[in-house]
Write a structure and sequence with these properties.
heterodimer, A: 98 residues, alpha/beta
C-alpha cells in the first residue's frame, strides 16, 4: 500500500511510500476525503522516493480540502531530492515543510 | 764700489801730488794708475761673465725655439682639422639629439594619448559591466539574463504545478462522474429488472386472458401492450447502458489524457534551477572579478599616463644638453681661431697681441666658469616640475 492514512484524534497522518505520482490519485484522495477540513494533516514522506507534478497538484488539492490558507499541513521527513522539488514549487510558503 | 774706490784713489793721488814731495809723485801716480786699472779690469770681468750667461741662455733659447716652431707647424693643420671635425661632430650631435628627443617626445605624447583613451575605454567598460547600468532597455547584462531566466523558470514551474493541480481536480471530478455513471448503470439494471418483471407479469396476464376466453380478449390486448412496453423499456435501458458504457470509456480516455497533463517530471526543473543558480553565482563572481580587474587596469592606465607625462617632462634635458653643446662649440671655435692666429704669427708685435689675447681668453674662461651661464646649466635638475626653461 503506497498511501496509508491514520486518524488519531485531530491528527491525520498520510504516509506515502515509493513513488508518489498520478497512480496514487485515488488512494491519496481517499486518505483525506472523509477527514474533517480542520484536522492537522501530516504528510509523512520519509519513504517517498520520487514525486512528479501530479503529486504536487494532489498536495495542493489536500490544502484546498483543509481550508486553503487556513490549512494546517505538515510535510515531514522529506529526502533532499523531494525537498528540492518542494522548494522549487515554492511549497515552503504554502506548507510546513520539514 | 769699484768706481768709488777708483775716485778715492785718484783724489788721494791728486792730494798727494799737491802735498807730497816730487819724488814720491811718480810712485804715487804709478800706484793710482795701477789701482784704477785693477778696478776697471775687475769690473769688466764681472760684466763679461754676466753677458756670457745671458748669451748662453739666449743660445739655449734660440736653439730650442725653431724646433718648437717646427713641431707646431707640423701639428697645426692636424689640430685645426681635428678642431673642425669636433665642431662638425658637435653640430651633428646636437641635431641628432634634437631629432631623437623630438621623436621621443612625439612617441611619448602618443603613448600618453593612448593611455588616456585606454582609461576612458576601461572606464566605459567598468560602467557598462555594472549590474544596474542598463538604462536604454536594449542591452542586458549576464546577471540580468540569469535572473530573468530564473524568474521564467519559477513562472514555468508555477504553471506546471497549477495545471497539475487543476488536472488532478478534473481527474477527481471525472472519477466522481465515473462513479455516478456506474450508479446510473446500476439504476438502469433496476429499470431493466422492472421491465423484465413487467414482461413476465404481462405474460401471466396474457395467459390468464386466454384462459378467460372470449371475456378476456380485451384484457389480452392490454397484456400484449404492457409486454411490448416492458420490452421497449428493456431495450431502452440497454441503449442507455450502451451510451453510458461509451461515456465511461470516454471518461477513461479523459482520465488518461489528464494524467498525462498532470504528470510532469520535476527533475528538469531541479536541473534547470540548479543551472540557473550556478550561472547566477558564476556571473556574480565574474562580474566582481571583471569589475575589480577593470578598476585595477584603469588605475594602471592612469599611472601610465602619469609616467608618460613625467617622461615627457624629463625630455627637457635636451635643452640643457643642447646649451652645453652650444657652449662647447663656442669654446672650440675660440680655440680654432686662436690656433689660426698663433700659426700666423710672424712678428714680435703680433706675438705680443696674441699673448694679450691669450691672457684675455684665460680670464674670460675663468669668469665664464664662475659666471651665471655655467652655474645655471650645472644646477638644472631633471626632477619633475623642476625644469628651468631658458
Amino acid at each position: 500500500m503506497p498511501v496509508v492514512s491514520k486518524l488519531e484524534g485531530n491528527n491525520v497522518t498520510v504516509t506515502i511510500r515509493g513513488r508518489f505520482d498520478f497512480n496514487d490519485h485515488t488512494s491519496f484522495r481517499e486518505a483525506y476525503r472523509d477527514a474533517p477540513p480542520s484536522a492537522n494533516y501530516i504528510v509523512d514522506m520519509a519513504d517517498t522516493e520520487y514525486m512528479d507534478s501530479s503529486a504536487l497538484g494532489m498536495l495542493l488539492l489536500l490544502r484546498e480540502h483543509a481550508g486553503g490558507d487556513d490549512s494546517r499541513i505538515t510535510i515531514s521527513s522529506c529526502r533532499p531530492e523531494i525537498k528540492k522539488i518542494l522548494t522549487i514549487a515554492n511549497f515552503q510558503k504554502l506548507f510546513n515543510v520539514k | 764700489m769699484t768706481i768709488w774706490f777708483v775716485i778715492l784713489l785718484s783724489t788721494t793721488a791728486v792730494v798727494m801730488l799737491v802735498t807730497v814731495p816730487a819724488q814720491l809723485y811718480t810712485v804715487v801716480c804709478s800706484v793710482a794708475a795701477l789701482a784704477a786699472w785693477a778696478a776697471v779690469y775687475y769690473r769688466g770681468i764681472g760684466q763679461r761673465d754676466k753677458r756670457l750667461a745671458e748669451l748662453q741662455a739666449q743660445l739655449v733659447a734660440h736653439k730650442e725655439e725653431p724646433i718648437c716652431n717646427q713641431v707646431m707647424r707640423e701639428a697645426m693643420p692636424l689640430i685645426v682639422q681635428t678642431n673642425q671635425a669636433v665642431d662638425k661632430d658637435l653640430l651633428r650631435a646636437r641635431e641628432l639629439l634634437s631629432e631623437a628627443v623630438g621623436g621621443l617626445q612625439a612617441s611619448f605624447r602618443g603613448l600618453s594619448a593612448q593611455a588616456e583613451s585606454q582609461v576612458s575605454l576601461v572606464t566605459e567598460l567598468v560602467q557598462k559591466s555594472a549590474p544596474d547600468s542598463v538604462a536604454d532597455g536594449k542591452s542586458i547584462s549576464f546577471s540580468q539574463f540569469a535572473e530573468e531566466t530564473n524568474d521564467v523558470l519559477e513562472v514555468f514551474v508555477e504553471q506546471i504545478v497549477s495545471s497539475s493541480k487543476d488536472s488532478m481536480d478534473i481527474v477527481h471530478a471525472v472519477n466522481d462522474l465515473s462513479a455516478k455513471m456506474a450508479h446510473v448503470v446500476k439504476l438502469i439494471g433496476g429499470v431493466q429488472s422492472i421491465a423484465d418483471q413487467t414482461n413476465l407479469l404481462a405474460l401471466n396476464a396474457a395467459i390468464e386472458a386466454a384462459r378467460a376466453g372470449e371475456a378476456g380478449r380485451g384484457f389480452a390486448v392490454v397484456a400484449d401492450e404492457v409486454r411490448a412496453l416492458s420490452q421497449s423499456s428493456n431495450r431502452f435501458g440497454g441503449e442507455i447502458r450502451q451510451v453510458v458504457d461509451q461515456a465511461m470509456r470516454d471518461i477513461a480516455q479523459v482520465q488518461q489524457t489528464t494524467s498525462k497533463i498532470a504528470s510532469k517530471d520535476m527533475t528538469f526543473a531541479i536541473t534547470s534551477k540548479e543551472r540557473v543558480d550556478h550561472m547566477l553565482t558564476e556571473v556574480s563572481t565574474l562580474n566582481q572579478f571583471i569589475s575589480e580587474r577593470l578598476t585595477r587596469v584603469s588605475g594602471m592606465s592612469s599611472e601610465i599616463g602619469q609616467n608618460v607625462n613625467d617622461a615627457v617632462r624629463a625630455m627637457q634635458f635636451e635643452d640643457v644638453v643642447r646649451q652645453l653643446l652650444e657652449y662647447v662649440e663656442s669654446r672650440v671655435s675660440v680655440v680654432s681661431s686662436l690656433l689660426n692666429d698663433v700659426a700666423a704669427v710672424s712678428s714680435h708685435e703680433e706675438k705680443e697681441q696674441i699673448l694679450q689675447r691669450l691672457a684675455q681668453e684665460k680670464k674670460q674662461l675663468a669668469e665664464t666658469r664662475k659666471g651665471d651661464h655655467f652655474v645655471k646649466v650645472q644646477q638644472t635638475s631633471m626632477d619633475q616640475g623642476e625644469v628651468e626653461l631658458f
